[in-house]
Design brief:
Strand content: under 5%
Radius of gyration: 25 Å
Number of helices: 18
Largest sheet: 2 strands, antiparallel
Bound molecules: heme C
Shape: elongated
Order of helices and strands: HHHHHHHEEHHHHHHHHHHH
Structural class: mainly alpha
Helix content: 40-55%
Oligomer: single chain
Distance between the termini: 30 Å
Number of strands: 2
Length: about 475
């Protein structure tokens, strides 16, 4: 089958990312044999949120300099982020943080670009102001990385961003560079959402709301997710970054999927609610599944990963409840489905007491538009009707970026009983199918449906995943 998701241009760009990263790593490690060298990309990540990068605990209490201002009412860890005082545009009070809730009056650092690294390290140790001493929380290498970031790599965003926040760049040119982003963010930049389920941001909305933050993160990467490439590493010209911004701003502002599939999996992880402690009211009407508490509130626990309840994989074994599937509900109207979810149809099946209207709507959209019959692809014995060879290249182009070629970067089990992509694909292909289709609650994993994959392509990748190491 022709693989439509990885045209040659994307492959070429992905290779470029890889080669660039290897060359940077090589260069840095070679030079470090002589004298300590700073890495501007690490510096940029530290500037964003240093404790996430160093693995330190987030600071408690306000930064000592915070008391010298009173306009920005944030407290605690936020006050320790370089960006909170100096801005995403490095212009402090002279830039985007010159008004609004982030205003502090603190100066920018753009003018420091080009200054000797040693002087900047000194300023970070308090030479210009003893309250600006970060040496208690950041080691020498981190201070050096920050200083090199400031001295060598700062960008003046003014030529790239108009006063109304729109980009000056060429969106068509930017689209070619954006091919480096689509494996994770999707062709429309909205396969992963950031911030919260209630108020989600995607590439399109973030780049429009805060073009300076977008530019910073696109150039240096994301502190919470170091597998994300940094455009600075690849030596893109400033104007190229402006073109990426222009393209990003042309993308949709809403997530590609409803998020209902994530709620179906484990709604409290998605909404941030406390996990329920009592059994679900309907649980007492069965006695075969001996789980208790929060588990009994997961849609999947009663209706199955294959949405077939007692007629599917949960028709026997420890998950058996006898409860029905919901595949037939796909054809129901939104009103009918809402009536099921808010307890009108059955007062014991009322989820409006634990999730809000937006979540109920997302569940309805999932059932109507994003749920499909997995048993067409996963056989009763757990084998998958997919082409593992086609799946291999889909896996390499997408999943391997985060899970590694062998699927072992993340361990979903415990240290004693590790579980990897391969383990899960063999043990529970229905679960893997669901998660690959819609994503993983609480984790920045793109749903394959949001990447534009067909169910058959998902089957192909799950078939390939079953060939990965299980331990
Ligand atoms: C709480 C606010 C605050 C935070 C957080 C902060 N700074 Fe500053 N920074 C200032 C202020 C105010 C100055 C102005 C001069 C001074 O007091 O040294 C300054 C000055 C600077 C200077 C210029 C020094 C010079 O030579 O004039 C640099 C460079 C700098 N900061 C970088 C950073 C970096 C990198 C971080 C993150 C590790 C950071 N700052 C975090 C408030 C802050
Ligand atoms: C290997 C996967 C991967 C690739 C490739 C990737 N990203 Fe990301 N990116 C992520 C993940 C995962 C997150 C969210 C991390 C989180 O939730 O903390 C993210 C977050 C972001 C954010 C920050 C959102 C925020 O508000 O914190 C921006 C901006 C961004 N990416 C832009 C890009 C751009 C531009 C590209 C291409 C040059 C790109 N990414 C390529 C995985 C990737
Ligand atoms: C504790 C078990 C349990 C949980 C948890 C549960 N359901 Fe149900 N669900 C049932 C039962 C039992 C029925 C059938 C009830 C009846 O006939 O009165 C049902 C019926 C439905 C129906 C109607 C099906 C049809 O074909 O008309 C839908 C839709 C549905 N559930 C969706 C969900 C969603 C979405 C969730 C998660 C938010 C969920 N359910 C959680 C047990 C559960
Ligand atoms: C942008 C990064 C990213 C991409 C791309 C990605 N994943 Fe994930 N995936 C994650 C993260 C993060 C988790 C959660 C890890 C954890 O819980 O420790 C996860 C979880 C999973 C799980 C669920 C494990 C569980 O706990 O039940 C499976 C299965 C999985 N991924 C398979 C895949 C497959 C197959 C692909 C390709 C179609 C893929 N992932 C693409 C980041 C990604």
């Amino acid at each position: 089958m022709k693989n439509t998701t990885t045209p040659p241009k994307i492959v070429a760009l992905a290779l470029l990312v890889f080669v660039g990263a290897v060359m940077l790593g090589y260069g840095v490690s070679r030079m470090s044999a002589q004298e300590p060298q700073g890495n501007p990309v690490t510096g940029g990540l530290l500037y964003d949120k240093w404790w996430t990068v160093t693995g330190a605990d987030a600071p408690v209490g306000d930064h000592p300099l915070w008391a010298t201002q009173s306009t920005n009412t944030r407290t605690g860890a936020d006050t320790w982020r370089c960006k909170e005082c100096h801005g995403w545009d490095y212009k402090g009070a002279d830039g985007a943080y010159g008004s609004g809730s982030h205003f502090t009056g603190f100066p920018g650092i753009l003018a420091i670009k080009g200054q000797p690294v040693a002087d900047i390290v000194a300023a970070l140790k308090g030479s210009t102001n003893p309250d600006h001493d970060f040496s208690a929380v950041l080691d020498g290498q981190a201070l050096l990385d920050l200083a090199v970031f400031v001295s060598e790599s700062l960008i003046d965003t003014a030529p790239l961003v108009n006063a109304d926040k729109t980009a000056t760049g060429d969106a068509a040119r930017g689209q070619a560079f954006f091919a480096m982003c689509t494996a994770c963010h999707g062709p429309q930049g909205n396969a992963i959402y950031f911030d919260s389920f209630e108020d989600p941001l995607v590439i399109g909305s973030l780049s429009s709301d805060n073009p300076w933050e977008f530019i910073h993160k696109a150039r240096y990467g994301q502190p919470t997710f170091l597998a994300m490439p940094a455009l600075y590493t690849l030596g893109l010209a400033d104007s190229d970054v402006g073109d990426v911004l222009a393209y990003a701003q042309s993308l949709p502002g809403e997530p590609a999927l409803s998020g209902g599939g994530l709620l179906y999996d484990k709604w409290w992880t998605v909404t941030g609610a406390d996990a329920p402690t009592e059994n679900h009211p309907l649980w007492a009407t069965q006695s075969t599944n001996t789980r208790t508490g929060a588990d009994t509130w997961r849609c999947k626990e009663c209706h199955g990963w294959d949405y077939k309840g007692a007629d599917g994989a949960y028709g026997s074994g420890s998950h058996f409840t006898g409860f029905p599937g919901i595949l037939d509900a796909t054809s129901k109207s939104s009103e009918e489905l809402l009536a099921w979810l808010n307890g009108e149809a059955n007062p014991d099946h009322d989820f409006s007491v634990v999730v809000d209207e937006m979540a109920l709507d997302a569940l309805v959209a999932f059932i109507q538009q994003e749920m499909f019959d997995i048993s067409m692809y996963v056989n009763e014995d757990g084998t998958v009707a997919g082409d593992a060879d086609a799946g291999r290249s889909l896996y390499a182009g997408t999943c391997a970026r985060c899970h590694g070629a062998d699927g072992k970067i993340y361990n979903f089990g415990s240290e004693d009983k590790p579980e990897y992509v391969g383990t899960l694909a063999v043990d529970n292909p229905w679960e893997v199918f669901h998660k690959v289709a819609v994503g993983q609650p609480g984790a920045p994993m793109p749903g394959a449906l949001a990447l534009g994959w067909t169910p058959q392509q998902i089957a192909d990748v799950v078939a390939f995943a079953q060939t990965l190491p299980v331990e």
